[in-house]
From TrEMBL, chain A:
<dbReference type="GO" id="GO:0006412">
    <property type="term" value="P:translation"/>
</dbReference>
<dbReference type="InterPro" id="IPR005822">
    <property type="entry name" value="Ribosomal_uL13"/>
</dbReference>
<dbReference type="GO" id="GO:0003735">
    <property type="term" value="F:structural constituent of ribosome"/>
</dbReference>
<keyword id="KW-0689">Ribosomal protein</keyword>
<dbReference type="GO" id="GO:0003729">
    <property type="term" value="F:mRNA binding"/>
</dbReference>
<dbReference type="GO" id="GO:0005762">
    <property type="term" value="C:mitochondrial large ribosomal subunit"/>
</dbReference>
<dbReference type="GO" id="GO:0017148">
    <property type="term" value="P:negative regulation of translation"/>
</dbReference>
<comment type="similarity">
    <text>Belongs to the universal ribosomal protein uL13 family.</text>
</comment>
<dbReference type="Pfam" id="PF00572">
    <property type="entry name" value="Ribosomal_L13"/>
</dbReference>
Automatic annotation (TrEMBL), chain B:
<keyword id="KW-0689">Ribosomal protein</keyword>
<comment type="similarity">
    <text>Belongs to the bacterial ribosomal protein bL20 family.</text>
</comment>
<dbReference type="GO" id="GO:0019843">
    <property type="term" value="F:rRNA binding"/>
</dbReference>
<dbReference type="InterPro" id="IPR035566">
    <property type="entry name" value="Ribosomal_protein_bL20_C"/>
</dbReference>
<dbReference type="InterPro" id="IPR005813">
    <property type="entry name" value="Ribosomal_bL20"/>
</dbReference>
<dbReference type="GO" id="GO:0005840">
    <property type="term" value="C:ribosome"/>
</dbReference>
<dbReference type="GO" id="GO:0006412">
    <property type="term" value="P:translation"/>
</dbReference>
<dbReference type="GO" id="GO:1990904">
    <property type="term" value="C:ribonucleoprotein complex"/>
</dbReference>
<dbReference type="Pfam" id="PF00453">
    <property type="entry name" value="Ribosomal_L20"/>
</dbReference>
Length: 248, 130
């Protein structure tokens, strides 16, 4: 029953002592000056969302503010940003706390559009990468030596009929929620940061979260913009200085 | 306020029903229910009058914070700068300035910035304040 684990012993000797790996899966070297030491991805690299191959090159203007007849609209790009920090900033804009005429009992805030929500970043152990392997012993080894890799640290609870329903809360991990609807992660974060009163729903109505790179609002500028090639500089045939030099 | 003030007639019934005018259901019609609700409301009105002054100050502080952040300055630093510059402008006037006269508010912020400016390289060697 017990097969020898000699198959999984390392074949080639590691000669470079400075290259220390974070996990067995990928050969990422530890960078002591990076902002976060341990980061996680919801899915393995081949399953992470990718940009289409035949698409023109684009670049982000990371945040845009647009004034409309309906008010101010802030379009934010969530790629590479922390969920909590982005949500704190967005909740501040929605409540209108950046304005001089802030009133806690009125809805005087601005509207916020968050784009690229699928590429948002959760620092630390929140997500776990699936260590799915068909081999039972490999997962056993992993569970023995690096148990923190096998836990989904972040859980969302959605209540339906809080007291009366005997089924209880619907419990979802952050990984699963990302698979089902990625924009819920940011909107739940913003919802938790808004004040818990009757105005919270009105604030949330002004928040729009899109997992993709473009938003469908007409008249609002896009944050992700195609790269425009500058026309090549053609030197002039006639220059004033050359004429002056010739006449001299 | 005790419920006995109503029960023993120190507060007459007409006043109880006058205070209970906007309430929901039988609390505005029936004396026994109205008495309880009215005493609660009068109690609330008493300490809310005191709390109103705190709430107004909180509102002023939030608005001044927003206005000074437009000039790249935090509320905490603005206040400490004003105390250092010996300007005793209160939060109510600062809030009114920020809303109606943005130019004067900018002058106030500049004064505070000048006091909160970090020491330059020349004064860093000055150990007389040590």
């Amino acid at each position: 029953m017990f097969r020898s684990l000699g198959r999984f012993v390392r074949k080639t000797r590691r000669r470079d002592a400075s290259r220390t790996w974070q996990s067995f899966r990928d050969a990422k070297v530890i960078n002591p000056f990076s902002e976060y030491q341990w980061t996680s991805q919801p899915y393995p690299s081949y399953n992470m969302p990718r940009v289409a191959r035949d698409v023109r090159p684009h670049r982000t203007l990371k945040a845009i503010s647009h004034c409309d007849e309906k008010g101010w609209w802030h379009i934010l790009d969530a790629q590479g940003r922390d969920v909590g920090k982005l949500a704190a900033f967005a909740s501040r804009l929605l409540q209108g706390k950046h304005r001089c005429d802030y009133a806690p009992d009125r809805v005087k805030g601005d509207s916020v559009i968050i784009v690229n929500a699928i590429h948002v970043f959760f620092p630390g152990h929140t997500w776990v990468r699936h260590c799915l392997s068909s081999n039972f012993f490999l997962t056993l080894l992993l569970c023995l030596f690096q148990p923190h890799l096998c836990k989904d640290t972040k859980i969302y609870r959605f209540w339906r009929n809080r007291r009366t329903d005997p089924r209880g809360a619907k419990v979802l991990t952050a990984t699963r929620l990302m698979m089902l609807n990625p924009s819920i992660i940011i909107s739940q974060a913003v919802k938790g940061m808004l004040p818990n009163n009757l105005l919270r729903n009105n604030f949330l109505r002004r928040l729009y979260c899109y997992p993709g790179a473009i938003h469908p609002h007409w008249g609002m500028p896009q944050v992700i913009v195609p790269v425009e090639k500058r026309p090549e500089m053609i030197p002039d045939a006639f220059t004033f200085e050359a004429e002056v030099r010739q006449s001299e | 306020m005790l419920l006995s003030a109503v029960r023993f007639g120190r507060i007459p019934r007409e006043i109880v029903f006058a205070v209970a005018k906007g309430m929901y259901g039988r609390s505005k019609r029936c004396f026994k229910l109205a008495a309880v609700r009215v005493m609660k409301e009068l109690n609330h009105m008493y300490w809310l009058r005191k709390k109103r002054r705190k709430q107004m100050r909180i509102l002023w502080i939030t608005r001044i914070n927003a206005a000074s952040r437009e000039h790249g300055f935090l509320y905490s630093r603005l206040i400490s700068g004003l105390t250092r510059a010996n300007m005793a402008v209160d939060r109510k006037s600062l809030c009114i300035l920020a809303e109606t006269e943005p130019a004067s508010f900018k002058c106030v912020v500049d004064e505070a910035k000048r006091m909160m400016k970090r020491e330059t390289l020349e004064s860093a060697r000055n150990l007389s304040r040590f």
